Structures are given as structure tokens and as C-alpha cells.
């Protein structure tokens, strides 16, 4: 086994990214097993550091077997290796999942009464907390103040999900989908040293994703091929960079990203209403959704039937609201950045520049639809056009790479309107 503690006794040092998975004593501890499995299977060297309370939910043998590393809760184990210092010093990332209200309080106040809290004090890498608790505990002023303190210090605190809690209770405080927590961690690690600077902290960003559907009757609709993957990548990367993110999802069959507030919509009119509402206090709005230009003038309450041999029925269309042009012309506040998308099949840059001028947004992401560039792909390439004349080509690659480049351009232009309300 490769040594986790670098140079402790001259052992070979693992070249794998080193992740410390702290587990505190909440019922969601069992979900961290799935997070651990995904981390190890994707090539990360994971050291699990549970609290004593966590071991009431999942035993040390499970953590050790899944990680391939020894498990301890005490600073007194293997004292010659100074684990209370070394584990944090040599980590590339520390994530506490789940993070209970007690653990958030200890971390915010710098307490160090076990191996995990000592590790948090010695870590100089990105630190992520994935809270899970009852709604009342999450919303309590003490917890919110502790979260704000951690965020001010540069820690990344993922917003908990809304859903079923322990027993019959439902509300905000649920541990996010472990797969999405893994994606969050992966994005933070991918940013490397840049992850230590949460350059979108203190901002509220709104992202639309997917494709609107305009119903013809209870069965049929007018739609498009957008999968929502680019918009979801934008939401994930913004959250990993410290932003408060509102994702407006139009018919995207994708899991909610960890730490993101998701609003589900169907039609262009519904999307417009959601955008206007969410943009009221947003620092940036990114319209990545594919919005239908037209909708049926009349909705048929019953399924439209074939009409014998008389031919197909005629469907009259009316224009949908131009959401991008509207929010560009009527900014919710001074300094708000608006980003649009344009999918083109020919004269890509010329059409993109014309659309940028016509819509009045600050940035327009132009991509060519064609081979290897179709809706639903995991990859994308584009040119980011700026109203200031900037032109930033982004080569073919993962959609998250394009998302990060878009946020780079937003960061250069945005001025946060206020402190993050989560703080």
C-alpha cells in the first residue's frame, strides 16, 4: 500500500490526489460510503477520518475496507507519525461529509478535540463541508453564523438539499446526492491551486439550462434537443468557485447539482417568470437554456386526432418572449452581467456578433452545431464574444472546461452587489 503520510518514515509517496474524508456523527454517514467508493475508484488516495459519533452509524472496518487506508479517530494512534498534523498537511483536499451542526461549530471556533478537528486546523488545501441536519438546526442563527464564518475564511460549504429527513420530516438539510458531491469535489480538485481562491464568493449567479417545451395538446409538444448538460456544468463550476447558484432547469433529466438551488420549469413563459424573479438580486445571469422562439397559439385540451384523408391540421404559432433581450435591456441592478448562448450552423462568428449586438448582453457564447458538437454531448467548443470586443476561443473539451472559461470572463467583469446572503 502506498503511504498516505508523505515522508513520515521514508516510505514511497503516493502520486494519487490525496483526499481526507471526514465523517461526523449524522445518519447521513452511510451516504458517505458511496462518495468514498467513487473517490477511490476514480484514482484518489482517500484517508477516512471519522468522529467517534460517526462510528455509531458506520464502523471503522467499513471505512478501512473501502479506502484501503487505516482509520482512526484519536490523535494518540500512531503517535510517531504525528497524524494530527501530517494528515492535514499533506492533503490535496479535505471534505467533511456529512458535516453536522456540531462539527460546523467546532470548525468555526477552531476547536481541536479529536483527529478530524485537528486535521481541519492543519489543512492548507481546499476544505469542503457538506452539511446534513434537520431544517431547524440548519436555519438556526448559530449554525448560519458558523457557516458564514467558515465561508469568510475560504472554506466551501455546500448548501444542503431539500427533501426527506430523518423520520417523517421534510425540508432543507438533506445530504445532497453523493454522486453530485463527488462531482463537486472533482471540480474543486481540478482547479488545483486556484481552488484556494473562491473568486465567485459573495455573488449570486443565475443559470438557465435545458430546453423549453411548448405543449400542443396533452400528449405532444414543440421542443428541442438540448440536454441541459452545459447549463448544469455552469452551475456546478460556479458552486465550486463559491457562488450562490440558482439553476432554472427546463426539462433536463439530470440530478440536481450539489449545493445549488434548482427551480424546475417547462415552457418559455414559465422560464421567463423564473428568470425575472431570480435575477432580481443576481450579480450574473447566464442563459444557457435553449428557449423555443414560438409556441402554439391555441392549446388543444384533448389529443389532436387524425382527420381522415383531409391532411394534417394547421398549427398557428405565436412568438415567445425574448428573455435574453429583455433582461439585457432591463437590468435588475447596475453592473449585472448577462451572458447568452448562440448555436449556429454557418457563419458562426458573424452571426454571433450580430446576435450579441441585437440582444445587448455582455457576453455571448457561440458554438457551432455539427459533427461532435451536437446537443447531448459531454464535450463542447465555443468562442466567447464580449460586448467590449473581446473574443476568447475555447477548444474542444469537457463542458466543465468551457464553463470555467465562461466564469473567468464573468469574474473579470462582475462587481458583487452585496455580501453572500448565506453569510
Automatic annotation (TrEMBL):
Recorded family membership: In the N-terminal section; belongs to the HFCD (homo-oligomeric flavin containing Cys decarboxylase) superfamily. In the C-terminal section; belongs to the PPC synthetase family.
UniProt: CTP binding residues: 293, 303, 321-324, 341, 355, 359
Role noted for this protein: Catalyzes two sequential steps in the biosynthesis of coenzyme A. In the first step cysteine is conjugated to 4'-phosphopantothenate to form 4-phosphopantothenoylcysteine. In the second step the latter compound is decarboxylated to form 4'-phosphopantotheine.
Record pathway: Cofactor biosynthesis; coenzyme A biosynthesis; CoA from (R)-pantothenate: step 2/5; Cofactor biosynthesis; coenzyme A biosynthesis; CoA from (R)-pantothenate: step 3/5
Swiss-Prot/TrEMBL catalytic activity: N-[(R)-4-phosphopantothenoyl]-L-cysteine + H(+) = (R)-4'-phosphopantetheine + CO2; (R)-4'-phosphopantothenate + L-cysteine + CTP = N-[(R)-4-phosphopantothenoyl]-L-cysteine + CMP + diphosphate + H(+)
Keywords: Decarboxylase, Flavoprotein, FMN, Ligase, Lyase, Magnesium, Metal-binding, Multifunctional enzyme
Necessary cofactors: FMN; Mg(2+)
Record gene name: coaBC
Protein name per the record: Coenzyme A biosynthesis bifunctional protein CoaBC
PANTHER family in UniProt: HOMO-OLIGOMERIC FLAVIN CONTAINING CYS DECARBOXYLASE FAMILY, PHOSPHOPANTOTHENOYLCYSTEINE DECARBOXYLASE
Keyword Ligase applies: yes
Gene Ontology MF terms in the entry: FMN binding; metal ion binding; phosphopantothenate--cysteine ligase activity; phosphopantothenoylcysteine decarboxylase activity
Pfam families for the chain: DFP, Flavoprotein
Cellular component terms (Gene Ontology): phosphopantothenoylcysteine decarboxylase complex
The enzyme's E.C. designation: 4.1.1.36, 6.3.2.5
Positions of the DNA/pantothenate metabolism flavoprotein C-terminal domain: 200-411
GO biological process, one term: coenzyme A biosynthetic process
Highest taxon of the lineage: Bacteria
Family annotation (SUPFAM superfamilies): CoaB-like, Homo-oligomeric flavin-containing Cys decarboxylases, HFCD
Annotated region described as Phosphopantothenoylcysteine decarboxylase, given as residue ranges: 1-204
Record domain Flavoprotein: where: 18-185
Amino acid at each position: 500500500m502506498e503511504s498516505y503520510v508523505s515522508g513520515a518514515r521514508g516510505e514511497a509517496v503516493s502520486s494519487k490526489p490525496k483526499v481526507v474524508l471526514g465523517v461526523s456523527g449524522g445518519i447521513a454517514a452511510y451516504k458517505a460510503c458511496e462518495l468514498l467508493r467513487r473517490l477511490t475508484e476514480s484514482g484518489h488516495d482517500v484517508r477516512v477520518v471519522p468522529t467517534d459519533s460517526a462510528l455509531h452509524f458506520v464502523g471503522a472496518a467499513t471505512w478501512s475496507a473501502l479506502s484501503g487506508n487505516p482509520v482512526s479517530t484519536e490523535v494518540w494512534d500512531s503517535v510517531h507519525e504525528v497524524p494530527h498534523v501530517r494528515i492535514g498537511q499533506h492533503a490535496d483536499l479535505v471534505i467533511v461529509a456529512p458535516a453536522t451542526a456540531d462539527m460546523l461549530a467546532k470548525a468555526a471556533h477552531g476547536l481541536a478535540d479529536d483527529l478530524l478537528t485537528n486535521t481541519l486546523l492543519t489543512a492548507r488545501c481546499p476544505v469542503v463541508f457538506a452539511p446534513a441536519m434537520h431544517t431547524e438546526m440548519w436555519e438556526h442563527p448559530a449554525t448560519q453564523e458558523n457557516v458564514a464564518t467558515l465561508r469568510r475564511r475560504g472554506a466551501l460549504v455546500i448548501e444542503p438539499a431539500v427533501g426527506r429527513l430523518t423520520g417523517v420530516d421534510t425540508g432543507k438539510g438533506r445530504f445532497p446526492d453523493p454522486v453530485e458531491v463527488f462531482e463537486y469535489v472533482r471540480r474543486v480538485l481540478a482547479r488545483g491551486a486556484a481552488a484556494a481562491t473562491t473568486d465567485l464568493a459573495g455573488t449570486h449567479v443565475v443559470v438557465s439550462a435545458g430546453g423549453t417545451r411548448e405543449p400542443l395538446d396533452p400528449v405532444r409538444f414543440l421542443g428541442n434537443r438540448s440536454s441541459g448538460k452545459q447549463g448544469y456544468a455552469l452551475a456546478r463550476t460556479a458552486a465550486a468557485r463559491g457562488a450562490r447558484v440558482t439553476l432554472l432547469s427546463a426539462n433536463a433529466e439530470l440530478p440536481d447539482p450539489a449545493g445549488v438551488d434548482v427551480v424546475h420549469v417547462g415552457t418559455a413563459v414559465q422560464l421567463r417568470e423564473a428568470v425575472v424573479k431570480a435575477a432580481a438580486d443576481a450579480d450574473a445571469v447566464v442563459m444557457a437554456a435553449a428557449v423555443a422562439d414560438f409556441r402554439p397559439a391555441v392549446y388543444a385540451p384533448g389529443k389532436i386526432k387524425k382527420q381522415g384523408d383531409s391532411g394534417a391540421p394547421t398549427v398557428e404559432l405565436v412568438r415567445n418572449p425574448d428573455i435574453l433581450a429583455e433582461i439585457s435591456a432591463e437590468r435588475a441592478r447596475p453592473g449585472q452581467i448577462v451572458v447568452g448562448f448562440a448555436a449556429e450552423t454557418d457563419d458562426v462568428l458573424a452571426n454571433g456578433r450580430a446576435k450579441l449586438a441585437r440582444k445587448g448582453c455582455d457576453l455571448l457564447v457561440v458554438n457551432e452545431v455539427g459533427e461532435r458538437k451536437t446537443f447531448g454531448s459531454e464535450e463542447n467548443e465555443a468562442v466567447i464574444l464580449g460586448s467590449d470586443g473581446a473574443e476568447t476561443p475555447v477548444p474542444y473539451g469537457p463542458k466543465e472546461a468551457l464553463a470555467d472559461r465562461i466564469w473567468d470572463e464573468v469574474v473579470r467583469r462582475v462587481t458583487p452587489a452585496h455580501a453572500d446572503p448565506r453569510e
